[in-house]
Design goal:
alpha+beta; Heat Shock Protein 90; 3 domains; five-stranded mixed beta sheet; 11 helices; rod-shaped; kinase; membrane; HisK_dim/P_dom
Length: 503
């Protein structure tokens, strides 16, 4: 039920996550598009403002040129009529300003060939007008007023001024037309920006609505799944408690059964061993009888009787005794495991460096016989655990390392340890025979042994070690290659706390 539930909600969660990512990407794209559009429109607005100001400047420059021409004509007429010097000064001032005014107008319209051509014509007409004005003013200053007035009256000033005004008006009209066209372009840009902004806003709205709908649905599904998981967890906790109780009862039954069976097996085994001893005594008496008969009456003893008394019967009794001794050792091992399973653990602080050193001293005779050396790397992390159990674990592991060293190679056994968080890992490394990959797990099974069986034992040591490690809340494994030694790794809690209750 749990895998299907997790799988179902896992797929939904993955799809929801991907959909939300897509919505976020669309939203960011819409925001970026709106930002780019705003930046572009701002740039266009600045450009439009620049050209509007430029148009107004051109119009002002055209008006300024026209005003100066008009003022020059007015000053000339005033001087011809009155002869007063201020009119002549005004004319001179206007004449001095007219050229810079034309230059500025020409600079402002340098990008407009049509306006440049119109300015050239305007300057030519203005030059002709200025030449006529200078001549009449020269006559007037020379005292020839009547001749100057006659010359003025004979001029086509009105036609020339009308032409100049018309040219100025035409130039202003062209600037206004440019302004109208630029205004139209600006309005088109604004409309395009609003369209872009509307599309981006629509995308943002759709992405927001889709995201909200997905989140609401996902939250609703998540709430439903949380309720289902809570109900399942409650029921699972009850099931675990029931199964744990059943397992505890079954474990107790197995231990009692093993204890009872081992006791029941021991009773007939003791009888077999006793009768085997009697058979051995009887076999000795029969053998003695056969010896006397051969000596006193050789013809009475057959070859079969002789073989049975001297070879077959002692060999059979030897086989029976060997088998009963092996069965006795197996029953003792089962009893030991059964008693260890029923023993109550007593956690206490254990100095591991001193404990391993003590084990090494107790096995020193074996280590010396093998020509080996036991060393401890650094200080081993201490434990709060059951001293008897941890001592049995390390005794078995170190003794096995000594027993299965490689002949002809100086033995080396190293014990090291480190603490990581709340757990401690110990390693017992040797350079002995090693264990094949296929036997890495089998060596921990009861009555299973690996490799050449040239050492005494019943195959219960590592099984006992694994059972003790499990009772202490730990695990044990092995890394090894044939001919390259073995490393047993023991991982235990640094502090033993109600491990059996949790198990």
């Amino acid at each position: 039920m749990v895998p299907s539930l997790v799988s179902r909600f896992g797929v939904r969660e993955s799809l929801a996550r991907r959909f939300l990512i897509v919505c976020m990407i669309l939203g960011f794209v819409a925001l970026i598009a709106a930002g780019v559009g705003a930046a572009w429109l701002t740039s266009r607005n600045q450009e439009h403002t620049h050209w509007v100001n430029h148009t107004y400047e051109v119009e002002i420059a055209i008006a300024e040129v026209g005003t100066l021409i008009e003022r020059g004509e007015t000053a000339r007429r005033g001087y011809l009529l009155t002869g007063e010097q201020p009119y002549l000064d005004t004319y001179a001032d206007v004449a001095a300003k007219l050229r810079p005014a034309f230059d500025r107008l020409q600079q402002l319209t340098i990008d407009n060939p049509v306006q440049q051509a119109a300015i050239a014509q305007l300057k030519a007409h203005a030059a002709e007008l200025k030449a006529q004005r200078d001549m009449t003013l020269a006559l007037a200053k020379a005292g020839r007023i009547e001749q100057a007035i006659a010359s003025f009256s004979g001029e086509t000033v009105l036609r020339r001024m009308t032409t100049l005004r018309a040219m100025g008006a035409a130039m202003r009209d062209r600037e206004k037309q440019l302004l109208v066209r630029r205004d139209a372009e600006q309005q088109a840009n604004i409309r395009l920006f609003y369209i872009t902004l509307g599309v981006a806003g629509l995308f943002l709205l759709l992405a927001a609505l889709a995201s909200i709908a997905t989140i609401v649905r996902y939250t609703r599904d998540l709430g439903a799944s949380r309720d289902m998981l809570r109900d399942f967890a409650d029921s699972l906790e009850e099931q675990v408690e029931e199964r744990t109780a059943d397992l505890s009862r079954a474990n107790d039954e197995i231990q009692r059964f093993a204890y009872i069976v081992s006791h029941d097996l021991r009773s007939p085994l003791v009888n077999v061993m006793g009768f085997t001893a009697e058979l051995d005594s009887a076999a000795a008496a029969i053998t003695d009888l056969i010896d006397r008969a051969e000596r006193d009456a050789p013809g009475l003893v057959t070859e079969d009787a002789r073989l049975a008394a001297r070879e077959d019967l002692p060999e059979a009794i030897g086989f029976i005794r060997t088998s009963t001794q092996k069965m006795d050792r197996l029953i003792n091992a089962i009893l030991k495991l059964s008693r260890e399973g029923r023993r109550v653990l007593a956690p206490g602080k254990v100095g591991m460096t001193e404990l391993v050193a003590t084990i090494g001293r107790s096995l020193q005779h074996m280590i010396d016989d093998k020509g080996a050396a036991l060393s401890i790397e650094g200080d081993l992390p201490d434990l709060v655990t059951d001293r008897l159990a941890i001592e049995q674990i390390f005794s078995n592991l170190i003794e096995n390392a000594v027993k299965y060293l490689q002949p002809g190679r100086p033995g080396r056994i190293v014990v090291r340890g480190q603490r990581v968080g709340a757990r401690v890992t110990y390693e017992i490394e040797d350079n002995g025979r090693g264990i094949g990959p296929a036997d890495h797990q089998r060596v921990f099974d009861l009555f299973r042994r690996a490799g050449n069986q040239d050492q005494p034992g019943e195959g219960i040591g590592l099984a006992h070690v694994r059972a003790l490690a499990y009772r202490l809340g730990g695990v044990i494994d092995v890394r090894s290659e044939l001919g390259k030694g073995a490393t047993f790794r023991l991982n235990l809690p640094a502090i033993l706390q109600d491990v059996e209750g949790k198990q």
